[in-house]
Amino acid sequence: MKNEYGIIIIGGGPAGMAAAIGAKEAGEDDILILERDSVLGGILNQCIHNGFGLHTFNEELTGPEYAERFADKVRELGIPFELDTMVLDVSPMEDGRKAVSLISAKRGAVTLTAKAVILAMGCRERPRGALNIPGSRPQGVYTAGTAQKLINLEGAHVGKEVVILGSGDIGLIMARRMTLEGAHVAAVAELMPYSSGLKRNIVQCLDDYGIPLLLSHTVVDIKGKDKLEGVYIAEVDEKRTPIPGSEVYYPCDTLLLSCGLIPENELTVGAGVEIDPRTNGAYVSESLETNVEGVFSCGNVLHVHDLVDFVSEESKRAGANAARYVKQGRKAGGSTVNVSAGNGVRYTVPSKINTNALEELNHIRFRVTGVYTNVSIVITSGDKEILRRKSRILVPSEMLDIILKRDKLADITDDLKVYIEEVES
Amino acid sequence: MMDIVIIGAGAVGCAAAMELSKYKLSVCVVDKESDVCEGTTKANSAIAHAGFDAEPGTLKAKLNVRGSEMMEGLSQKLQFAFIRNEAMVLCFDKDTSGLEVLKQRGEKNGVKGLSIISGDEARALEPNLTDEVQAALLAKTSAIVCPFEMTLAFAENALENGVQFRLSAEVTGIDKTDKGFIVKTSRGEIEAKAVINAAGVYADKIHSMVSGTPLKITPRKGEYMLMDKETVPTVSRTIFQLPTKMGKGILVSPTVHGNLIAGPTAVDIDDKENTATTSEGLNEVRAKGSLSVKNVPWGKVITSFTGLRAVGDSGDFIIEESDVPCFFDAAGIESPGLTSAPAIGEYLAELVGKRIPLEKKADYKDTREGIVHFAMLSNKQRDELIKKDPAYGKIVCRCCTVTEGEILDAINRPLGATTLDGVKRRTGAGMGRCQAGFCSPTTMELIAKKLGIKTEQVLKKGIYESEVR
User: Fold this and answer.
1) Does B448 map to a domain?
2) Which residues of A touch B440 (CB under 8 A)?
3) Which of A25, A105, B336, B396 is least surrounded by Cβ atoms within 10 Å, i.e. has the fewest?
4) Which A positions 31-50 lie with beta carbon below 8 A of chain B?
């Protein structure tokens, strides 16, 4: 078995597959995808609802269908992939290559090398422990994704009387899924005054089924010794502190948690890559390259996306850039400017841009810090205004994608700033 | 007719079983839970204390120091995680006489390697100690241990040497007969010449089934927070606080798994099953932990939990033959109970020996083969293992690098795991940062296959309606 590669891609979900396709189409043939699961497709395999692919394919696909299109393409292009393979370590070597240590039944414990590595490990759900919800620790408390996997892939029955904490998209999807499975979903409680899920999911998954969304509410106690018996939900004040006396008891056998996704960057940190505390993903350049030369990051391991179409698009670029890096190395010269998040902007990807490495179309992706109506998105470089775009409504649950043509950025020397300008109404 | 029934399969009950299995005796351990290590033993600080806390002359002092001496050897023979990581007791007061008292007490108890160091010396050893630390007692023999693995090791060793285990069997009554006792359980009666009561917070209830003398056990709640594994440990020693008027204080310590633990609070309660955490308790852990150590990654808490210490009235362990001959209590085993457990086992065997002649077995096996911890192996060892059994090439728990091979071993070995928590205690699967989000469906599938049940019927903990063991 071969041990040396041009590009090794860690993760065979939507990001990894698109990165591989991007690299291959950009002319790199020596690619290997490493996937820890026993099939390609990642979390998409358990997302049996539809709504995927509107941007990419102009049609509504289910998760597995969307994944299959990419998996078919990977096979059609003859890109090698190894399943049931867990990467335990990535580290830069003295000669600039990367050492990728892995475990699989097929190979055993081995270390491969690659000229470039693309990190595409995706994200995980924030568990109950990290939320510091007091109470007992009975059976019946699941993250929404774990319940989704049990129901959709294992065919298991999860519960009859359900409360959901957190209105992330998976939680909303699972509210509908549990209802369709015959369960009763009593409520979805959301700590924030707004939902972190997409509007369409609130309408299609809650409103259509008469499931109440309790904004500014949280679970304050969990009851039941071996099995869950119920939870207390309380209203919270502006500081997100539960208001005494507002507790309401909901008897239930299932509590699903949809309280945020965390990029899985343990390998990334181990490789010496700097992490942006705002995204919990790597700091990357316009090429989606991290501070470690030849290590790229894309998809949900870079920053959590709400649409897989955006993951695919981004990852394809990462793949193409990695292919270019393998052939030509890093582009030198030009000026490098930082991209900073100003008023109302939580983060930006990328966090820096080298003007010599610009593409014809360049993406700046970000999320806003709260709900904004009738505002302008502004991008400046020093005193120069690069972009001003009016927007009727901006919400944190929707990632924004600004595409700038090369000529807009080619001559800049001052740092870029992305911010929201509020207009007096 | 058995020689001895041990009630309670925690650290003390299993240590006693292991000790008694060295002799030609028939021994049966019963427990109301479906696994060993389900009570106080599973939720504590996981410290093997040096032995400077207890008053000289008490059983606590004697058994703590003896237990601490025994543990390292046992950890090697029985393969459980044990690391002598040292400890510090911090003093925040200019007046450091409190540390001197502890040191003298420790020395009287026979603890070696105690010294008092200045605040700066302490900070040189542990850079994350706060500036408020004035001085510290350094205890070289203090250690950390995996309480689950230790107890399982005792139990598996006892099992291998002929001890029987009857789990999911709650003791509902004990009759005194001419020949001994009839221990009635939810899974049948057992006749025995002698009974050892190692029932933790329920030791008073068991005691009163036989004896008329008073014995009261109060559950003292202790809440803990566990932080994610660290590449650079926040502290490498166990950091205690000198008890003050404000209370006993909160410890911050690494665990043998590479996590950071902080706790416990101390609140006496009535309910022996109340292991719920509270927001007040967790706030107290954060506030007091931050007095000792700065930069505690409170944002990286992966779980919090509550343990119940079994506190007796006397202030000391109550390990004695009760007023009823051949009925032995091992009660009030609060801290340093985990450390003392192996020594309590020895001590109980001595007590039993006064009633039932002890004759050594020729074929006693003093070693036990533990479950492989794949994450701890070198790459060469990993490679060899995978070549031997490809199940070790499949990672099930990503966060803690636990393989299918380890989980299958945990399920298939005698006294194996039947629940998710049982697998977690034996292998560490599900103990990491995602808290079993990714691995639980696979682990459930493996358990279901072994038990011949549906995936959804697999329990996190507790007793199956149809008996599965």
Assistant:
1) yes
2) 146
3) A25
4) 36
pLDDT at A377 over 70: yes
Interface probe, candidates A133, A146, A231, chain B, greatest B C-beta count within 10 A: A146
Contact by Cβ (8 Å): A310, A401: yes
- Whether residue B275 and residue A125 make contact (CB cut-off 8 A), yes or no, is no
What is the count of structural domains for chain B?
3
Residue B409 lies in domain: 374-457
Name the pTM for this structure: 0.94
**Pair (B321, B347) in one structural domain:** yes
CATH number at residue A322: 3.50.50.60
Tell me if chain B has a CB within 8 Å of the CB of A228: no
Q: How far is B215 from chain A (nearest CA, A)?
A: 26
Domain containing A120 equals 1-124+261-330
User: What is the domain-level CATH number for residue A400?
Assistant: 2.60.40
Which residues in chain A have Cβ-Cβ distances shorter than 8 Å to B277?
Answer: 134-136
Structure tokens at B134: 């004035």
A260 vs B: CB within 8 A: no
Complex ipTM tops 0.95 = no
Distance from CA of A314 to the nearest CA of B (A): 25
Does A150 contact B at CB distance below 8 Å?
Answer: yes
Q: Provide the Cα torsion B440, B444, B446, B449; round to 10°.
A: -170
Instruction: Provide the CATH number for the domain around residue B257.
Output: 3.30.9.10
- Cα distance between residue B265 and residue B240, in whole Å: 13
| pLDDT means over runs of 10, chain B (469 residues) | 98 98 98 97 96 96 97 98 98 94 96 97 98 97 98 98 97 97 97 98 98 96 94 94 76 97 95 95 96 94 95 95 98 97 98 97 97 96 97 96 98 97 97 93 97 94 77
**Pairing state between β A4-10 and A31-34:** parallel
Instruction: Tell the residue number behind the tokens 């026979």, with chain if given.
Output: B110
B49 is catalytic: yes
Helix (H, G, I), strand (E, B) or coil at A356: helix
**Is B109 touching A (CB cutoff 8 A)?**
no
Using a CB-CB distance cutoff of 8 angstroms, which residues of chain A are in contact with residue B302?
A: 127, 129-130
The one-letter code for the residue type at B194 is A
B28 and B167 in a single domain? The answer is yes
Centre a 10 Å sphere on the Cβ of residue B126 and count the other Cβ atoms it contains: 22
Residue showing tokens 């085993």 = B333
Cβ distance A196 to A224 under 8 Å? no
**Structural domain includes residue B184:** yes
Contact B282 A125 (CB under 8 A): no
The answer to whether the beta carbons of residues B278 and B284 sit under 8 Å apart is no
Residues of A in contact with B225 (CB under 8 A): 132
Name every residue whose Cβ is closer than 8 Å to that of residue B232 and which is 6 or more positions away in sequence.
none
